[in-house]
Amino acid sequence: MREYQLPDSSQVEQFREQGLLVLPQFYDLDEWIRPVQRGIYQIIGHVMDRHGIPDDRPPFNGDNFDSGYQQLIAMNRSWGGEIYDAVKQIPAFIRLLGHPAHEQIMQTLHPGCMPGVAAGGYGIRIDNPGEEKFRALWHQEYPAQLRSLNGIVFWSPLVPVTPELGPVQFCPGSHVEGPLPVKTTDSDGRSAAYALKLADEQAHIAKYLKISPLSSPGDLVLIDFLVLHASGVNNGDRSRWSLQFRYFDFAEPVGKSHGWKGSYASGVDFRSVHPELCAD
Ligand SMILES: O=C(O)CCC(=O)C(=O)O
Ligand SMILES: [Fe+2]
After folding, report:
1. With a 6 A CB cut-off, is 260 part of the ligand 1 pocket?
2. 180 found inside a domain
3. CA of residue 50 to ligand 2 center, whole Å
4. What CATH number should be reported for the domain holding residue 66?
5. pTM (2 decimals)?
């Protein structure tokens, strides 16, 4: 990111109104995105090797970074889990998420904030075709992550997101409702943060227009911690790979009052931090 464009005043306004902002081609592809893709390509190779699968993939060229992945998970789905756990530890990904540009975006969108990186709040999603188990249902980020009410999910695709790949859906403007009650008991076999379920989901969602912006590698999508969003359904023939990491605000009073606790991913029981937001 030798050069990058911080949001201008009309984009700041748009983020305030919608709780959502897309910054097209924010990241220089060669400098920031290719190294992450190369790391994924290499990890897929190591996982193949670990399981005695011959590596006959074409050489890495960027766009083919996930070559071999679809065949691997068809052989054994748990190998996909190994890859998922591994790729968030690629140094080029950690360098990207730690770049000062993200603190500057936080300061531009939340003047006076003190940015923090949500521990355990970063990773690389792999939304596989036809898989329902890990699809994010309608949610606000705050209950799933806690840390502070002020926060931004930085979301960036590693593949061109077409309608078939199930782009993330948003209810622009829904962040103005503040944190909404959730049900914390597991209903359909989902675990951890996936078990938090927005109470009266349909009633909330019905009030808003839903949008599913398409995006491609290099684009950056900024998601307010309180805006309602959900994974789309992947009906395509490849996985939808995307980066996400989260910045919160140490200066925000609610986060400060509970000591910037994290939620499920850091072993905290949401019910003990926000009993008033538990619908059950
Ligand atoms: O990429 C997705 O499907 C969901 C993303 C999401 O909910 C998030 O990054 O917070
Ligand atoms: Fe989310």
Report:
1. no
2. yes
3. 32
4. 2.60.120.620
5. 0.96
